[in-house]
Amino acid sequence: MENNLNNYQKLTSAQNNQIKLLNKLALKKYRYELGQFAVENLTIIYDALKSGYDFEALFITQDFINKCKAKFQYLQAHSQCQNCYLIDEKLNKQYSLLDTPSGITAVYNIKVKKLTDGSAVYLNGVSDPGNLGAIMRNALAFGFANLVLDETCADIYNFKTINAAKDAIFKLNILYDADAGWLKKNTLPVYAASSQAGRNLADFKPALAFCLVLGNESQGLSPKIKNRADEIIKIEMSAQIESLNVAAAAAILLYKLRQI
Predict the structure, then answer these.
(1) d(CA 80, CA 60)
(2) Strand, helix or coil at 9?
(3) What end-to-end distance do the CA atoms of the chain give, in Å?
(4) Other C-beta atoms within 10 Å of 221: how many?
(5) Which terminus of the chain has a smaller tally of CB atoms within 10 A, N or C?
(6) Architecture of the domain defined by 8-109
């Protein structure tokens, strides 16, 4: 199958409105103002389309087409997108957030999903985008579809978060909480993870549905959030170490409490 670029508009100027859009989407303010975010990772774009999540616009370089013909042909064959652009490497470097631009950028609409019945993972002050993305993947892997982030968490549409979350960015039901408003109204039992004290995870039996709270990487849970907990649970560890990275702790907790 030959690559058909007849429907691709060639862009050469950094002053083009589409390139200006990509520059804006590097900033959180504009992502939420415009309701869109960009992905520069072929694996995420490819896996998302395989799962039925199509992009609103696609930007590619000729070098990318030459190197990734099979996957590019898949994108062409299965996407319904009409906003497709061919750009050169210079333009790609002009807006890319990557040290080495990938040659492909897809733009997606931010879709707000409601939480479904069942358990939820609540994040309090998880400020590192890489940790946030890893937790998102862990949640999806172990059957937790509902994710609630408080106002002190990193942005889920930060490119570092997206690269760590992979296609979990599209598959989770995500809600934003302010001043613990959702947590206060929540009727699920709340289990807060702590590295200091609490019931040992190995001996803990959760309810059928619950809310698991994970805190900041260095400071743990805020007192306001911790006071909402019905149970404090901890992972029993060697005395040689004080705590785990929050993403690693999340993987262990979600595996033990898994919903699949």
Answers:
(1) 16
(2) strand
(3) 40
(4) 21
(5) C
(6) 2-Layer Sandwich (3.30)
